[in-house]
Fold:
Amino acid sequence: MADNIRKAAGKSVITNQKFSTQPTGSFIKAVSAIVWKDLQAEFRSRELFSAMLVFSLLIILIFNFALELDIKTRQSVTAGVLWATFAFAGTLGLNRSMAIEKDRGCLDGLLLAPVDRSAIFFGKVISNLVFMLIVEAIVLPVYSVLYNMNLFQPGLMIVILLGSIGYVAVGTLLAAMSVQTRTRDMLLPILLFPVAIPVLLSAVKASSGLLAGVPFEEVQFPINLLIAYDVIFVAVAFMTFENIVEE
Amino acid sequence: MTPPLLPDNNMITVKKLVKRFGLKTILRGLDFEVQPGEFVALLGPNGAGKTTFLRILASLSRPSLGEVRVAGFRLPHDAAQVRARLGVVSHLPLLYGDLSADENLRFYGRMYNLANLEERMTEVLDMVGLEHRRKDLVRTFSRGMQQRLAIGRAVLHDPDVMLFDEPYTGLDQDASSMLDGVLKTVAAQGRTVVMTSHDLARAEELATRFDVLSRGVIAASATHKQLKKSNLLAFYKQALAN
Structure:
């Protein structure tokens, strides 16, 4: 119709771009485009990553001075300190990641693309998750040195990955909501922490069990709970993202 | 997806459009039609609802009541089809400062799943006169250059309908003149254009029709031929007074 209309108007019909007719292909392409764009922009500015990393290192340093404890007590607080660090740093990153989109109107640019809104959500989730995992990968060895503990256990890595997925999924959704307000910096933690409590509790419980060296059966329940929360949070965010980003 | 053919064959058809934000009604039963290839300047005072109306046409906001069709597709139901045929330029550039001009266009091209993207990017950068700066970061561009690139981004997928929301905001004389040229090129390619503006002189130079939006409805409408030259200001004032 478009070409006919142009012809009817007596105007030139310039090369019409061809759109893919495969929705799945365009969905994956859109998700990967958003991830590539976020990583590329962050690689240049290091705005988000450096803030998250410095903040994380400061937190574990403060805890290190504040909790001058014996090795046994340190073991028992490690999971809590780690997850508090990840949660605070994650909030900082989530806020900034959406603010970058909003400040120059780029969120509208994303919403104007003829792709499913969930592609935008998943693209942002993946890039936020990558930033969070990189920060965690740096924080863990620093924590190991400062607290003289070995944190490099495969089980703990899986728990950190699962906990980060749930936290980032619900965090990205709420960041998309809070970024529309003037008080976005304050609003995100107020909205996010209560909602993310089940993920954080399960992650702390599973992490402390693994660090204490308890049998896997004892940490299986919080890990299962973590998987369930991840599925629920991703599904809910997937279903509600469109309504949140549209007026 | 083939759009249903409409008897009026309009590119944009809006009937009895109402938009409410809470208790506040911004658009009050607005009717609006645009023929293919028309360049409509949407004029009106601040707060008249011009941006709200354009955001509804762009599928960024949902109508509270009424019917909206763009290129034969109904909003908000066929929003993806409308977006594929729509280019939007606002006073914000919708570009990433930490990416180069090339990277910005490549990103949007991938979002629109375009074929022959590199070729099209070169075409578009050439059209907006930024071919020589394609590798530079957008944050190093002047406001005028950013706005030209924003137009390049908006026409990348060769849309049939272009929506401009105050595109001259914050531009100096030189940048405005360059933007005039780009806008004329965009319109000359057969696109249907709707532009909101406070700059009557510029609107008169570019548009083929002038609609005045006041108190949530189109208060008056006239084509360029119906207006005697340099009489747009009187027409505008009269439309607001009625």
Notes: Chain B has a mean pLDDT of 88. The radius of gyration of chain B is 18 Å.
